Amino acid sequence: MALRVMVVDDALFMRSMLKDIFVRAGYEVVAEAENGEIALELYQEIKPDLVTMDIVMPKKSGIEALQEIMASDPDACVVMVSALGQDSLVLEAVESGAKDFIVKPFKENNVLEIVRRITGQA
Amino acid sequence: MDMSQYRDLFLSETREHINNLNQLVVTLEQEPGNRETIDALFREAHSIKGMAATMGFDRTAELSHHLEDMLDGFRATGEVPASTVDYLLAGIDLLDGLLDDLQSNKPERSIDAFMVETPNEEPAREESVLTAEILEEIPAEELVAVAVEGESEEITPADESAPEPEVAPVVKVETEESNKAETKKKSVKEPDVFKVLVKLAENTPAAAARGILVLRELEKSGELMSSKPDMAALRGGAPCQKIQAWLRTSLAKMHIEEALLRISGVVKVRFIDDRRKDESSGRDEGGRTIRVRTDLLDQFVNLTGELITNRYMLHTATNGRDWDKLTQTLSQTSRLIDDLHHQVLQARLMPLENITGRLPRIIRDLSRKTNKEVTLRLTGAEVGIDRVVLEALTDPLVHLVRNAVDHGIEKEGVVTLSARREKDLVLIEVADDGKGMDPEQLRQQAVDRDLMTPSQAASLSDRDALMLVCRPGFSTTEEVTETSGRGVGMDVVKAAVSNLGGSLDIISAPGEGSRFQMRLPLSIAIIKILLVSCAGHPLAIPLTRVQRTLDLPTCDIQLSGQKRVFRLGEEVVSLYSLAEALGLPEVAAGETTWVVLTEVQGRRVGLQVDHFLGQREAFVKALGFPLNLLVGLNGATVEGNGQVVFIVDPQALLENRQLFKND
User: Least CA distance to B206: which residue of chain A?
Assistant: First the structure.
């Protein structure tokens, strides 16, 4: 079965890009969320195989959302999407259970490699 | 990756962010210590940076990064110094300019000058960008603030070698289970102890976090005995370009190496020297994007579903010759189609606030420049307007607001921008409580400027006298001001509104302020038309261009020189033949002459037609080459019987005709 992915980012632009990358790779983007709050809700409802999570978002930051997702589902597979210069936040995210992180600007291959690595899908 | 398909989305979304930035800065100026506003500003700049960097628009990314850094500093202090507001605004303007460049496919303009003239208040923290220097657990907002302080004493250069583990490398334990590496049990053998050297790419972002992921991967492969830097140091954000680790594992080195190299940022693992494959993937072309709310799409699906059901009902009714049923189903169908039409229009609507976003900023700048105290009031910014209309309205609206500040308000006052729906029109009004306009003075000016004779001027109604300001070359102020006396005049505003099939009204009197009202169609793809017959051909005139229709006794039409005229109340109105304007053979009028009253260049004129056929809604189809070269034809629509009906734009048609220029 295709990998089910949820994309979380407050910028439609970023969501679209990631979504296209995943769709091209044959994954199924089952949900999109524009802030941590919605992400959390959707996660509980849909339980996607993989979440890509922006860090700086309104309402609820990606880190908070990550922490709450990990608390409810320790096996959650969350990849952070960060900008340059957010090292400390990334560190916090990794500490909180993020499986990996993608740094903007990214390349299609980077994203897919990271996803394949952590999901064990070739 | 081909990024061009995201360009439009990038541009439109970034414009929104810039709008928000402008608004937020103005808000901030009123409440300099508002934490939420500063946070919001930071997020906006941050978003732009991320998108621009991804698109590879380096200067836009650099500038937004710069602004973001600056704002981040303010997040730490919780306040934005008043002296930096102008700098911020200048930065936002520059961003806007960069976006203009990108939009017109030009190289991004230079930002060097801006980057150099940094205000004193800006915290110097550029250097913290690529290194992680944070130790303690601190709330996310505070993190970078701490980075500014600098915890550099915590950063210890990595030693060249990791401490030797207690276990001698030669010892082999027979029965050791291959512990956590269940998933990677590719070649189980006796555990071995060896040293791994992992090298990360230069300037790897968030290198410490990357290091933690490397160590985690090693932990999965076996027993991580020691490492340099170790987990604790990495948690503290220690710099890490190289990681040395002692590992006890029964997995083949090759597999460990492979797993490590899969971690992004890992460029080298010591044993093997082959490269990661570098595949490139194909891509497909993208189209233009429009954002539609998903609930709206759901409604489309519902409605089309119901229409399908309806089609079956129609079939059944027809087959059974059940006329009652047929009539009933037809009326249902027509209701569904109305609904669908309405919903589809909704999809094209965008709130007015998309273009009002920059007005507070414009008012602020104007107030300063003119030394007036002007307050802007916005109501109805949520009203939805067709995106095409909205785009074309941006400049006229700005011009009206500038005019209001410049010419309307004297020392202090209020400019009100309001919008509301009026049936299938949107009324947008820009009003000021300034000195108002004097019709008498305008009449005089028109005469002074040789635009008309004194008697012509005297015959103008007050309303028409006010509309004189929309004549090209007519300006109420003697001196051209920097703000509104540039290029765009009221004539351009009027033309823009007309082009959209809308109308402009001015309501003003001395001492009573001025109100500029624009009435615009909600959508320009489906319009209401008046169907007329002209030299035997059906023709359509957009209803927005029709002031009223008249059936005039032919004997009431008089000749004034070469021209035919008729009286309408106090006014003398010129009459033109639509057939003549279109080069069609004229049909002589009987006792009654059918006239469509319309407006051309601010003047009321009558258009003679054979007779009226009725009103209806029409879907406008654009004309293809070479028909699109015909002046005065806006498009065409198809009648129920399949006949193509041209849509006439009376204004364009008459303006282009010699018969109108002659008088």
Answer: A87
Low-confidence ranges of chain B (pLDDT < 70): 1-2, 118-191, 271-291, 423-424, 473, 475-488, 523-525, 640, 657-663
Task: State whether B207 and A17 contact (CB < 8 Å).
Answer: no
What integer pLDDT is reported at residue B38 of this predicted model? 87
B437-491: pLDDT as tens digits = 899 988 988 888 888 888 888 888 888 888 888 877 676 554 444 444 433 578 8
A102 contacts B65? CB cut-off 8 A: no
- The predicted pLDDT at position B402 comes to 86
Instruction: For chain A, list the domains and their CATH numbers.
Output: 4-108 (3.40.50.2300)
Q: At what angle do helices B323-348 and B294-319 cross, to 10 degrees?
A: 160
- Identify the pLDDT of residue B128: 36
Q: Chains A, B: CB contacts under 8 A, how many?
A: 129
Contact A105 B205 (CB under 8 A): no
Q: Is the pLDDT of residue A21 over 90?
A: yes
What is the complex's ipTM, to 2 decimals?
0.72
Nearest to A13 among B6, B43, B237 (CB): B6
CATH fold group of domain B352-521: Heat Shock Protein 90 (3.30.565)
Query: A2 vs chain B: nearest CA distance in angstroms?
Result: 19
DSSP H helical segments within B294-418, as ranges? 294-319, 323-348, 353-356, 359-370, 387-403
Q: What is the pLDDT of residue A9?
A: 93
Q: What is the largest CA-CA distance in chain A?
A: 37
Beta bridge partners of A52: A7, A79
Architecture of domain B4-123: Up-down Bundle (1.20)
Exposure of B192 by Cβ count < 10 A (0-12 exposed, 13-18 middle, 19+ buried)?
middle
Residue B191 has what pLDDT?
66
B6 with A91: Cβ contact below 8 A: no
Q: What pLDDT is attached to residue B608?
A: 92
| Three-class SS state of B659 | helix
CB contact under 8 A, A13 and B51: yes
Q: Which fold has domain B181-269?
A: Alpha-Beta Plaits (3.30.70)
d(CA B36, nearest CA chain A) in Å: 10
Angstrom CA distances, B245 to A28, B123, B159, B226, B267, stand at: 38, 39, 12, 6, 16
This prediction's pTM:
0.45
* Topology adopted by domain B526-661: OB fold (Dihydrolipoamide Acetyltransferase, E2P) (2.40.50)
CA distance A27 to chain B (A): 15
Question: What's residue B481's pLDDT?
Answer: 47
CB contact under 8 A, B140 and A101: no
End-to-end CA distance of chain A: 13
